[in-house]
């Protein structure tokens, strides 16, 4: 049985609670054990380093150390968390070898708070990579009880998952295929379109709202024009900008969009027989009924 130290992050247990719910439902279906890191802190979403790189490194060294205490990989289901925590892990593993004074400084701050030291002994892994690389697509396919035949899915990788870290072991950061391969494994048809690897606009939304919504509208429109029935994202922040704010995006974009946006574990869990209600598919701002009707629910 695969086992991970589960880092839910803050958005998945707040504004996107259906993501936490569907991740746990999917893990149950795949016989993956998740041990939740209930003492973990927000990764900072890339904002800590605007004030202090040391702050970002120390907060996330503590998060990783919590997983190390369990001798388990740290599992995220948020591209932003993956990008931030994964890059901290890369930087501190390098510092351990090449900048021991900085490495010791981070651990010294952890010691002041009576926290376990960061050792650099585990990995930080997104749910997508855990499914594709650890569990395996063939094994997922064997668990499918309801093929998602006829559903045209457009992946929205975003930027942090692919390029937040210096080295990406599981895919091509500029021409990825992991999500499309997973779609095919559960019987859906992948749609490739311009914008699937670009920023959703969320980081701009607090100070350049119209630009953020224009970016989101451009990606949604491109997916619609390519024939997608839905967008599927591995990041709750992307989901907020593309689903929760889609009515506002439409006003800036100047036309109706109405494209359902699913969390990655929701899509996979549907194919494994989890009910739409158990996946929180009624919680979305843009109705997912068109997706469910196409699949015969």
Q: What does it look like?
A:
The protein has helices at residues 17-29, 48-51, 53-69, 79-98, 100-112, 127-135, 137-143, 160-163, 178-185, 209-225, 236-244, 246-253, 264-271, 289-294; strands at residues 3-6, 33-36, 74-76, 124-126, 152-155, 189-191, 230-233, 261-263. By secondary structure, the protein is α/β, with parallel strands linked by helices. The chain folds into 2 domains: 3-125, Glutathione S-transferase Yfyf (Class Pi), Chain A, domain 2; 137-294, Rossmann fold (3-Layer(aba) Sandwich). Helix 3 (53-69) packs across helix 4 (79-98), helix 4 crosses helix 5 (100-112) and helix 10 packs across helix 12. It is globular, with a radius of gyration of 19 Å. It starts with a strand and ends with a helix.
Please outline the helices and strands.
Blueprint: E1 3-6, H1 17-29, E2 33-36, H2 48-51, H3 53-69, E3 74-76, H4 79-98, H5 100-112, E4 124-126, H6 127-135, H7 137-143, E5 152-155, H8 160-163, H9 178-185, E6 189-191, H10 209-225, E7 230-233, H11 236-244, H12 246-253, E8 261-263, H13 264-271, H14 289-294
Shape: globular
What percent of residues are in strands?
5-15%
Instruction: Round the mean pLDDT to the nearest integer and report it.
Output: 95
What is the alpha-carbon Rg in Å? 19 Å
Low-confidence stretches: none
Second rung of CATH, namely the architecture of the largest domain = 3-Layer(aba) Sandwich
Order of helices and strands: EHEHHEHHEHHEHHEHEHHEHH
The domain count comes to 2
CATH topology of the largest domain: Rossmann fold
Strand order of the largest sheet: 2-1-3-4
Could you estimate the helical fraction of the residues in percent? Answer: 40-55%
The chain-level structural class is alpha/beta
Report, as a whole number of angstroms, the end-to-end distance: 31 Å
Count of helices? 14
Top CATH class of the largest domain: Alpha Beta
Instruction: Give the number of DSSP strands.
Output: 8
Please summarize the sheet with the most strands: 4 strands, parallel
């Amino acid at each position: 049985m695969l086992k991970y130290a589960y880092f839910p992050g803050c958005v998945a247990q707040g504004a996107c609670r259906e993501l936490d719910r569907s991740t746990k439902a999917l893990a149950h279906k795949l016989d993956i054990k998740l041990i939740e890191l209930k003492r973990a802190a927000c990764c900072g979403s890339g904002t800590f380093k605007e004030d202090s790189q040391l702050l970002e490194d120390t907060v996330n060294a503590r998060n990783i150390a919590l997983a190390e205490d369990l001798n388990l990989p740290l599992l995220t289901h948020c591209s932003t968390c993956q990008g931030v925590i994964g890059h901290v892990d890369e930087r501190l593993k390098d510092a351990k070898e090449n900048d021991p004074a900085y490495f010791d400084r981070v651990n010294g701050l952890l010691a002041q708070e009576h926290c376990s030291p960061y050792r650099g002994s585990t990995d930080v892994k997104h749910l997508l990579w855990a499914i594709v690389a650890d569990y395996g697509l063939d094994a997922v396919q064997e668990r499918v009880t309801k093929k998602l035949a006829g559903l045209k899915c457009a992946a929205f990788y975003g930027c942090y998952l692919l390029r937040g870290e210096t080295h990406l072991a599981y895919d091509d950061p500029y021409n990825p295929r992991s999500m499309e391969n997973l779609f095919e494994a559960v019987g859906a048809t992948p749609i490739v379109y311009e914008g699937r690897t670009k920023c959703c606009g969320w980081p701009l939304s607090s100070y350049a709202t119209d630009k953020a919504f224009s970016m989101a509208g451009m990606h949604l429109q491109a997916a619609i024009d390519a024939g997608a029935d839905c967008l599927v994202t591995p990041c709750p922040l992307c989901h907020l900008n593309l689903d929760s704010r889609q009515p506002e995006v439409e006003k800036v974009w100047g036309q109706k969009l109405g494209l359902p946006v699913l969390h990655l574990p929701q899509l996979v869990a549907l194919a494994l027989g989890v009910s739409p209600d158990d996946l929180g598919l009624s919680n979305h701002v843009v109705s997912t009924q068109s997706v469910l009707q196409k699949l015969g629910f």
